């Protein structure tokens, strides 16, 4: 998933590259590297671990350079495999985000032509392929065009050539943005990385090859010059800073009332026209946290009498599990809009006859451009790897979509009323932070836990379990309460706590019965509930009462509560909360 950056201008490149790299570190952080062009040639520095701007003591001078922070896909995590990569003559330095499927064949061919490789990566192959094209007589842009024409798979690359001092960017399937300054130009995997320097950006399209100069860019596509719109990013620099919070995750959790309010008010006249206004089937396709938002959408729409609804794991869509619908609407959800699995799943559904609607937080992202329609969450940039405010704003969009598709019904009416209450209900939930802190710290003693719920809290059990895994390294499993006795009960004992999400609805008595059964097996019980009941107090180690949200939308407050519990649990264990091990935020590889 790697982050790539580049700078060409009048100022020292290194500080700009490092601080931009730090802002794309969420994309991967197992190693990093920079290359700066100066009178000595191309100087390179690589290191295993995440970028540490304060401690990165690199003496390079020069006003042109590239950088990379890696999430290894081909080749182990090592200094040797860290980017930038070079050709044989060290004329070409290259950083790459993506996966080259035919890298073995290319490597064999290039080795037979006499190229020597110094890393195990697929990325290095691209540098040698460009070198080969240059030695065949091409100049850099032509060489990159010819080389990328032979690549199968995905790439966003920035290439630096020593002799001509030129920089070229190319992409297919992996994101890249070019920022325009005054006599200087920036490159990054996404816009927040260069926001402190410029708000004017160009998004190259798949297949574009761009010569980047201090004056801007010349973009070519299939050998012809093309122009791409210059867009203005309306995000603010303060949104990508910690603002006094210990971690981005905590800041983003506390931003939720505002993010929800912004998402509601972004569509004052209601959601835009949908690609299908009267579907006969709605399917949600997503991965990870966004998948759980889809499950909430499914819950809110289920049994509406007008259309059927289901949710699919986007990466499981190799075979589309549906017959051709007459009016099918596929809703693909992706925070970054670049999630490779979700894009592939959405494309599969499109081929199967569904019209597609993207729900994403990033304007002009790949999914936004590919879908038949798009609805944006207005959460602002999210920096922590674990999604928080993008999830709750996705829930808001799910509720707004449910109300729209069930328009004219009582359910739609009460949903709209409940949506309006959400910013305040979430605010009230945040005010209970001390309670979540002490419960979260308590849970830091355990390595395993179950999280149970029923009906409207069931998707939250999955999302809460994901947060406990990511942030607290607790092996947490979200289970429908009724399923516990069909197997997982075997694992219940004094060291396996159960976190129960008990909503004030028709299921609460059944949940209570389950809690008694758990208590009889000596497992500690933690309860989050908006239904104060004495009987719960009798069985639980700890009960936290949440504000009540109507219309089946309790997921919002239960989620916020579990985010804070997992946050404080991870913090008590002194874990790297904003950058959990082995993860990356925007999962752009399939
Ligand atoms: N395939 C490249 C590597 O392993 C880039 C990985 C990525 O962009 O995720 O170094």
Note the main attributes of this structure.
single chain; 590 residues; alpha/beta; Glutamine Phosphoribosylpyrophosphate, subunit 1, domain 1; Rossmann fold; 3 domains; 8-stranded antiparallel β-sheet; 7-stranded antiparallel β-sheet; 25 strands; binds glutamic acid
What is the count of DSSP helices, taking H or I runs of 4+ residues?
A: 16
- Strand residues, percent: 15-25%
CATH T-level fold name of the largest domain: Glutamine Phosphoribosylpyrophosphate, subunit 1, domain 1
Biggest beta sheet summary: 8 strands, antiparallel
What's the number of domains? 3
Which strand order do you get reading across the main beta sheet? Answer: 3-2-4-1-10-9-11-15
Strand-pairing-aware structural class: alpha/beta
Protein architecture, described:
By secondary structure, this protein is of the alpha/beta class. It has 3 domains: 3-232, Glutamine Phosphoribosylpyrophosphate, subunit 1, domain 1; 241-431, Glucose-6-phosphate isomerase like protein, domain 1 (Rossmann fold); 432-576, Glucose-6-phosphate isomerase like protein, domain 1 (Rossmann fold). It is 33% helix and 24% strand. It contains 16 helices and 25 strands. Strands 3-2-4-1-10-9-11-15 form an 8-stranded antiparallel sheet, with helices on one face. Strands 5-6-7-8-12-13-14 form a 7-stranded antiparallel sheet. β5 and β6 form a beta hairpin. The longest helix is centred in the last third of the chain and has 21 residues, at 410-430. The model has no long low-confidence stretch (mean pLDDT 94). Glutamic acid binds at residues 1-2, 70-75, 96-99, 121-123, 589.
């Amino acid at each position: 998933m790697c982050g790539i950056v580049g700078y060409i201008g009048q100022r020292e490149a290194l500080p700009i590259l490092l601080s931009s790299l730090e802002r794309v570190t969420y994309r991967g952080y197992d190693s990093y590297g920079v290359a700066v062009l100066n009178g000595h040639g191309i100087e390179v520095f690589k290191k295993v671990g995440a970028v540490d701007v304060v401690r990165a003591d690199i003496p390079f001078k020069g006003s042109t350079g590239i950088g990379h922070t890696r999430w290894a896909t081909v080749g182990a995590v090592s200094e040797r495999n860290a980017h930038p990569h070079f050709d044989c003559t060290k004329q070409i330095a290259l950083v790459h985000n993506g996966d080259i499927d035919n890298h073995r064949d290319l490597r064999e061919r290039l080795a037979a032509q006499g190229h020597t490789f110094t890393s195990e990566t697929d990325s290095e192959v691209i540098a040698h392929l460009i070198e080969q094209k240059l030695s065949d007589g091409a100049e850099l842009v032509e060489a990159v065009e010819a080389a990328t024409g032979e690549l199968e798979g995905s790439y966003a690359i920035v290439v630096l050539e020593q002799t001509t001092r030129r920089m070229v960017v190319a992409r297919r399937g992996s994101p890249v943005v070019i920022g325009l300054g005054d006599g200087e130009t920036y490159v990054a995997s996404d816009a927040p990385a260069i926001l402190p320097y410029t708000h004017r950006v160009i998004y190259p399209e798949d297949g574009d090859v761009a010569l980047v100069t201090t004056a801007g860019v010349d973009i070519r596509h299939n050998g012809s010059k093309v122009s791409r719109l210059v867009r203005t990013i309306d995000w603010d620099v303060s949104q990508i800073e910690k603002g006094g919070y210990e971690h981005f995750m905590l800041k983003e959790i506390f931003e939720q009332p505002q993010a929800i309010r912004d998402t509601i008010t972004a569509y004052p006249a209601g959601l835009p026209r949908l690609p299908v206004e009267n579907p006969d089937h709605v399917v949600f396709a997503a991965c990870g946290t966004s998948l759980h938002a889809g499950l909430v959408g499914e819950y809110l729409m289920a049994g509406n009498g007008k259309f059927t609804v289901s949710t699919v794991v986007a990466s499981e869509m190799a075979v589309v599990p549906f017959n051709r619908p007459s009016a099918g609407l596929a809703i693909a959800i992706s925070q970054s809009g670049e999630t490779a699995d979700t894009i592939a799943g959405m494309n599969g559904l499109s081929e199967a006859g569904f019209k597609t609607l993207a729900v994403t937080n990033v304007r002009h992202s790949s999914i936004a451009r590919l879908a038949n329609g798009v609805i944006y969450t207005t959460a602002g940039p999210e920096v922590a790897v674990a999604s928080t405010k993008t999830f709750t704003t996705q829930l808001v969009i799910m509720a707004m979509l449910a109300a729209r598709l069930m328009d004219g019904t009582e359910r739609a009416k009460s949903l709209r009323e409940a949506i309006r209450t959400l910013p305040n209900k979430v605010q009230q939930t945040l005010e209970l932070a001390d309670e979540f802190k002490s419960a979260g710290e308590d849970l830091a003693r355990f390595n395993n836990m179950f999280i149970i719920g029923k009906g409207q809290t069931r998707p939250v059990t999955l999302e809460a379990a994901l947060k406990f895994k990511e942030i607290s390294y607790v092996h947490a499993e979200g289970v429908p309460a009724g399923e516990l006795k069909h197997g997982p009960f075997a694992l219940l004992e004094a060291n396996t706590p159960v976190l129960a999400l008990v909503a004030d609805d028709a299921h609460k008595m059944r949940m209570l019965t389950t809690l008694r059964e758990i208590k009889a097996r000596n497992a500690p019980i933690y309860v989050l509930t908006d239904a104060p009941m004495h009987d719960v107090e009798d069985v639980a180690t700890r009960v936290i009462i949440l504000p009540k949200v109507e219309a089946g939308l309790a997921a919002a407050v239960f989620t916020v509560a579990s985010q804070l519990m997992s946050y404080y649990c991870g913090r008590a264990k002194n874990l790297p909360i904003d950058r959990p091990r082995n993860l990356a935020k925007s999962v752009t590889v399939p």
